[in-house]
Amino acid sequence: MRASHAAVGLAVLLALWQAGISVFSPPRYILPSPVAVVSAFLRQPGFLLENSAVTLTEIALGLVIGSVLGIAIAFGVAALPRLSRLVWPMVLVVQAFPVFVLAPILVLWLGFGLASKVAMTTIIIFFPVASAFADGLRRTDREILDAVSLEGATHWQTLVRVRVPLAIPHLVSGLRVAAPLAPLGAVVGEWVGASGGLGFVMVQANARMQTDVVFAAMTVLAILTLILRLLIDRLTASLAPWASEADPASPFTSRSKSRS
User: Fold this and answer.
1) Hey, what CATH class is 33-240 in?
2) pLDDT averaged over the chain?
């Protein structure tokens, strides 16, 4: 049901876009019509799909590495509370820098290839995952902790068998926030310096005033983002069904599933 609502919303947006083009007739280099964007994609589908594969690789690697690091740091802080005094200030300092500041530095250090884009994506993904999971581990109900303590559970047993499972919904929320941000890291890195990827396509097309190609690349990127979010929702439902309650903001979960 939610997916159909999203499709209707998209159709309305496209209709309004086309109507605006018909009424105001802006120059094509300022705002192309939806038909022009589709035509731009059909003129060079292989080129766009090839660069999409580059960006998708950067996104996937950054998402995996960033998620693993975020989970590891959150778990480490919960296991060793004193570690948080050292770790979180450094994490906050890194997150305080805008991505447009970090991207040129990472390209300078790691080059124009895959590594700098993956590093940029990893940094963006890391914080929401680590923050959400750490918050979940920290918010375990005190009554539950007291009960398992009375049963003789050690600190590590309580952490692994009680606090981690109860914190999984928070981790899922962090992943849902991180998934739409993953393309941002890859594309910003490609804007700064790259030889391929959707960000590279946008920069090259913008320099030639080929706005229809820019919009075509943006459309492909939006589709990749939606697919990534869908995969995370489905993976969550398979691996942690108790944490896969429907997200009100997600177009991929139905109300009937959320009630079951």
Assistant:
1) mainly alpha
2) 85
